[in-house]
Amino acid sequence: MTANITLNADRVAGTIDRNLYGHFAEHLGRCIYEGIWVGEDSPISNTNGIRNDVLEALRRLQVPVLRWPGGCFADEYHWKDGIGPRGDRKRMVNTHWGGVVENNHFGTHEFLMLCELLDCAPYINGNVGSGTVQEMAEWVEYMTFDGVSPMAELRQANGRKAPWKVPYFGVGNENWGCGGNMRPEYYADLYRQFQTYVRQYGDNKITKIACGPGGADYRWTETVMREAHAKMDAFTLHHYTVPGPSWQDKGEAIGFTEQEWFTTMERALQMDELITRHSAIMDQYDPERRIGLIVDEWGTWFNVEPGTNPGFLYQQNTVRDALVAAATLHIFQKHCKRVRMANLAQTVNVLQAVILTEGERMLLTPTYHVFEMLKVHQDAELLDVHLQSESYELEGRELPQLSVSASRSSDGRIHLSLANLHPTRSAPLKLAVRGAATEGLRLSAVELTGDAMDAHNTFDQPERVKPRAADALVLESGAVHGSVAPMSVTLVTLQS
Ligand code: AHR
After folding, report:
1. 247 CA to middle of ligand 1, Å?
2. Which of 38, 74, 132, 426 has the lowest CB atom count within 10 Å?
3. Tens digits of per-residue pLDDT, 270-297?
């Protein structure tokens, strides 16, 4: 059956915050160290210690916002250990992630320099689990106060005269788990207390972010919203796509079956229900939608690559990950009136990374290509799309075969992205555009697909999965006809 897609170009359904395309980098495995930071003396080409190949690749993605330093690491991180001359910085054990020594060479100055080099907004996650109110207050003062104060003077003594802009600050991470195993009642009180001292200095306006639930923990949302909604600007949600039968066996990153492919899609699409239900609770306390929902950890989580440190969470990234990325970004866009930011876990070498490195070598993953193709949706107007298509069925279970989202950017171009979740069946389609003049419209399209369900890039074959022109789509009489390949992500651009 031909899928019928109607794009209503005159119905704007919201604005897609660029921050939905955000990223997350934790002190975990080889994400920060080697993946981003190699140090000034490294033989790997770098800018002030940050590797240039990764920097350039991230620049091309137009990363809008980057979250740091964790994750679980955030609630064990003491920021003063990461300032001053690097040789004098305290070493600590990274207890969550492999028990390795953390030398604190990448700290506040290095992170904020990275954000400046990427021209992205920093999102700093503070420590509630094992930190103090004073420590959090001083960190904010250190980074953002433009005046005479002990922390501003310390910053200047460490070489940075002007304060930075820090628009996003998280008050704890997963405080229901690794961030202190708290009950929501207790966290809500701590949140109210800690956030009091997250000061707004000068014209630095901080969006204060409260720790939200993991997955379907609606009691957490209900309680924290009830007790603390007036004191927060944003609230988080974490949801990972884990296709395996248990946390001990999360499923393989490559060499999986179609059942595992299907389960992966099914679990990724649960994001829609999670956002819908958490938003409904938020609506009760915040009907005006002042408070943003921030999905600051999401992505696939598989068994680590055999032979690697289990605490480093290194996994390969295939065309399946690309499909998860596209379908999830579409869900965020659909909910853009409530969801204001999302941060894929994690940028380099960890979980659903956009970049993998091996010493001086680097590759772009299929997920990277999806973020690059779909970046045109950033800050664009979300357009209403109506989709009628077949479903993808397997052993009595059913999923939509296609996932779709469309937007109009400020230059007037219309972009429609399509993910075909079926690994073996192409999708014939007709895309009708209504509510806009179609004479003189021109079409271009690119697609990303693979020659196997687990097609991926390696250091020896780094371009096996990459976008190519999609020539199976044509524009005729104001409508797009053709078909999209199995397991593909396609970006259609219409411009006059
Ligand atoms: O992203 C890996 C970990 O997953 C984060 O540190 C933690 O917040 C979550 O449980």
Report:
1. 13
2. 132
3. 999 999 999 999 999 999 999 999 999 9
Nearest to 31 by CA among 356, 361, 300, 324: 356
Q: Whose CA is nearest to atom 2 of ligand 1?
A: 71
Choose the residue to mutate in 173, 174, 312, 350 for probing ligand 1, maximizing ligand atoms within 8 Å of C-beta: 174
Q: How far is CA 81 from CA 103, 260, 403, in A?
A: 9, 43, 45
Query: How far, in Å, is the centroid of ligand 1 from the Cα of 82?
Result: 21
What ipTM describes this predicted complex? 0.99
pLDDT on residue 322 = 98
CB-count burial class (<10 Å; 0-12, 13-18, 19+) for 405? buried
Tell me the C-alpha to C-alpha distance, in Å, between residue 161 and each of 83, 108, 151.
Answer: 14, 14, 12
CB-defined site of ligand 1, < 6 Å: 26, 70-72, 173-174, 297, 345-346, 351
CB 73 within 8 A of CB 26: yes
Contact 122, 114 (CB under 8 A): no
Q: Residue 65: beta bridge partners?
A: 121
Q: Which atom of ligand 1 is nearest to the CA of 297?
A: 1
Give 76 Cα–ligand 1 centroid separation in angstroms.
13
For residue 148, the SS3 value is coil
297 is catalytic: yes
Residue of 265, 319, 347 lying closest to 451 (CA atoms): 319
Q: How far is the CA of 213 from the centre of ligand 1 (A)?
A: 13
Tokens of 295: 């999905």
Q: Which of 26, 260, 297, 381 is catalytic?
A: 297
For residue 255, pLDDT over 90 is answered with yes
**C-alpha span between 347 and 352 (Å, rounded):** 8
State the pairing for strand pair 479-484/234-241.
unpaired
Q: Which residue among 26, 34, 141, 174 is the active-site one? A: 174
pLDDT at residue 412 greater than cutoff 90: yes
Q: Which of 362, 368, 323 is closest to 344 using CA atoms?
A: 368
Beta bridge partners of 357: 362
